[in-house]
TrEMBL record:
UniProt name for this protein: Lipoprotein LppJ
Source organism phylogeny: Bacteria, Bacillati, Actinomycetota, Actinomycetes, Mycobacteriales
Residues annotated as transmembrane: 12-32
Keyword Transmembrane: yes
Keywords (A to Z) from UniProt: Membrane, Transmembrane, Transmembrane helix
Length: 189
């Protein structure tokens, strides 16, 4: 058994201090990395099953068509964009469709939105947290796709639906020409 003076010797104290310091650094690093991931979410994780450009487009265009038909949306116009999930340019990317459609008057819009929600939940969509900044808006999700819809604040007779796919396209599109592409013709009318 070591003597009390042996544990108080300068080399022993330095060894104990170094062991405690290393433990503290590793513990803080572990907490910091998990906190960083919590703040950024899955965007910092490597993509396990990447999507091609066409698959990313189909992932949002097919639900847009389903919602248009099932929800009986009228006066539709839609645009598609492959957008960065991390910033303005870097991979990974996700497909996005912005869909505009007609809504009845302001007082009838909540009931109309509820009818869309009811029709889509019957097709396997799940109601999610309503979008912030859009009173009366709705959010639906299914298979990694999120659809957010709300009344257009500039035009009382129009609504906007934003449909986002998963962040699984890892192709580098930083040098591609960008801009929304009209996909209205690809949706049922």
């Amino acid at each position: 058994m070591p003597s009390a003076t042996g544990l108080r010797s300068k080399p022993a104290v330095l060894l104990i201090a170094a062991a405690l310091l290393v433990s503290l650094v590793f513990g803080l690093s572990f907490v910091a990395m998990h906190r960083f991931r919590d703040l950024r979410g899955e965007a910092v994780d490597p993509v396990a099953h990447p999507l091609t450009d066409e698959q990313a487009k189909r992932q949002v265009l097919e639900p847009a068509g389903e919602i248009t038909a099932t929800g009986k949306l009228k006066g539709i116009s839609a645009s598609y964009l492959l957008m960065s999930c991390t910033n303005a340019d870097d991979p990974p990317y996700q497909g996005a469709v912005y869909l505009n459609f007609d809504v009845p008057g302001v007082m009838a819009t909540p009931q109309y939105f509820e009818s869309i929600t009811t029709a889509m939940t019957a097709k396997g969509w799940t109601v999610a947290t309503p979008p912030g900044g859009h009173p009366g808006g709705r959010t639906l999700t299914r298979n990694g796709v999120t659809a957010i819809y709300f009344r257009n604040s500039d035009k009382a007779d129009r609504a906007t639906m934003q449909i986002y796919g998963e962040c699984r396209n890892t192709t580098d599109h930083r040098s591609d020409p960008t801009g929304w592409v009209d996909v209205t013709g690809a949706l049922p009318h």
